[in-house]
Automatic annotation (TrEMBL):
PROSITE patterns: PHYTOCYANIN. CDD domains: Plantacyanin. Keywords: Copper, Disulfide bond, Metal-binding. The keyword Translocase does not apply. This is Basic blue protein. One of its GO terms (molecular function) is metal ion binding. Residues 66-161 form the Phytocyanin domain. GO terms for cellular component: plasma membrane. The lineage of its organism: Eukaryota, Viridiplantae, Streptophyta, Embryophyta, Tracheophyta.
């Protein structure tokens, strides 16, 4: 009897639509199946079911990861405070910051720095002009550290569930 086995799970976190690739193949000698042994059919089935459940879990997580372009078509700019309103962010979602890298940047800060518009030494700074940053669970604060920009509203605070 030939049985199809999982050979690998390759979740691809593509930019917009996450896809899941699962490769099936046939292993006549069952040599690639770790728990295979005579008389252990139930163990084999349990393992296959576990593998399927893991695939499903990964798939569901990928489907739920969203990508948001900060500021929408205007990009990462001034007066951003209202942009997060009405959106439901989740940990693992990606924020895309599009901006002119000669004028702006994105600095990951804490609440205090967000409020005071000061980027502390050692803060993580992005400056590619097309930065993709994954949200962590809880509060996420970002500011632009160019002089005066944060004070002009180039700052966002996002809570991810
Ligand atoms: Cu700026």
């Amino acid at each position: 009897m030939e049985v199809a086995y999982f050979s690998g799970l390759e979740p691809e976190l593509a930019e917009r639509d996450a896809t899941l690739k699962v490769t099936f193949f046939k292993s006549p000698d069952m040599s690639l199946f770790p728990l295979e042994s005579p008389g252990r059919g139930s163990a084999r089935h349990a393992t296959v079911i576990t593998a399927l459940l893991v695939c499903l879990l990964v798939y569901v997580q990928n489907v739920h990861a969203a990508i948001y372009t900060v500021g929408d078509s205007a990009g990462w700019s001034f007066n951003m405070a209202s942009w997060p309103k009405g959106k439901r962010f989740r940990a693992g979602d990606t924020l895309v910051f599009n901006y002119d890298s000669t004028a702006h940047n994105v600095v990951v800060v804490n609440r205090g720095s967000y409020s005071s518009c000061t980027a502390p030494a050692g803060a993580k700074v992005y400056n590619s002009g097309n930065d993709q940053i994954k949200l962590v669970k809880g509060q996420n604060f970002f500011i632009c550290s160019s002089v005066g920009h944060c004070q002009s509203g180039m700052k966002i605070a996002i809570t991810a569930m």
